[in-house]
Amino acid sequence: MQISFIIPHKGRFEMLIQTIESIAKQTFDLSQVEVIVVSQTKEALSHTFCNDHSLRINTFLRPESDTISALRNYGETQASGEFLAFLDADIYLSENWLEQMLNTLDCDPTRIVASAMQICLPEAPPLEKIRTSLSNAELDTNVAFLPGRNLFLTRSAFHKIGGFPEHLLTCEDYYFTDKAAQLGALFYTSAANYIHLGEDKTLKGMFDKEIWRGQSNLKSIEGRHIPLREWPSFIVPPAIFLCILCALILICAGQMALALLSLILALVPLLAYTIRLYRLDTLKVSFLNTFTFYTVYFPARAIGTFAGIFKSISNKNT
């Protein structure tokens, strides 16, 4: 049985090294494991990642213009494994991750993709704890979506799904796992876990990342059926952002009553999402921190969505 770990990479070597070290610590026969690092950084070609010589590591350099999907798809063409493990380059796996991923797929033939739960250290900042709680909203059950940072599936399943969507800059995991869910079950298990080393830890960092992530929001829905539960994630951020923008314009125009109405319209979904997450949260982050998270998250997503629209229009006109 051969397992291929495929890791797209660009920068932040210290996190990539930790990711590979966690693979080297798996409670599994490492002679059956290979690691494919598909990097956009030349330094990766000559870097020594791990002292454990039983772990085979192959590194490939790709153009900076390649999307993360293109890097993953290229990694698959260089892999020899019967099973594929797609990791981001900032993921620290629990030692039983590989063993439990195999068990998760093996115990139910309807499952097509497996993924482990996210954890964080007790001293993690509130934002990281919020992100972790959001990731673990559903555990030990079939889910509608799995994040791309740790996915496990057979190679044959990968080919049936059709690979990752190379036309998307972000949101590629939504697209990929949505197509996978049409063929089988996506299972999110607590039997293994991982730490997201590069998780957002500051509001400024999250704001910038969400603008980037939001650019492919609308593009990711092209060519696939969008279930009702997904529509709020596309509608709510722009609606809140526009309500806040309208309120500011109305305040400048002296229309205080209408400005207050716009702020209330923005506040209602903010409070609804905050209350929902606060009730789900097992890491006990304060209500204020949770509310602050959404106050930053939704405008950033909206800005990213609008930026993606303008970019698409600009590309079509050139």
UniProtKB/TrEMBL annotation:
Signal peptide: none annotated. Its EC number is 2.4.-.-. CDD domains: Glyco_tranf_GTA_type (cd00761). It is an enzyme of class 2 (transferase). Residues 4-161 form the Glycosyltransferase 2-like domain. One of its GO terms (molecular function) is glycosyltransferase activity. InterPro entries: Glyco_trans_2-like, Nucleotide-diphossugar_trans. Pfam families: Glycos_transf_2. The chain crosses the membrane at residues 231-251, 258-279, 291-310. Keywords: Glycosyltransferase, Membrane, Transferase, Transmembrane, Transmembrane helix. PANTHER family: GLYCOSYLTRANSFERASE, TRANSFERASE, PUTATIVE-RELATED. This is Glycosyltransferase family A protein. It comes from Paraglaciecola mesophila.
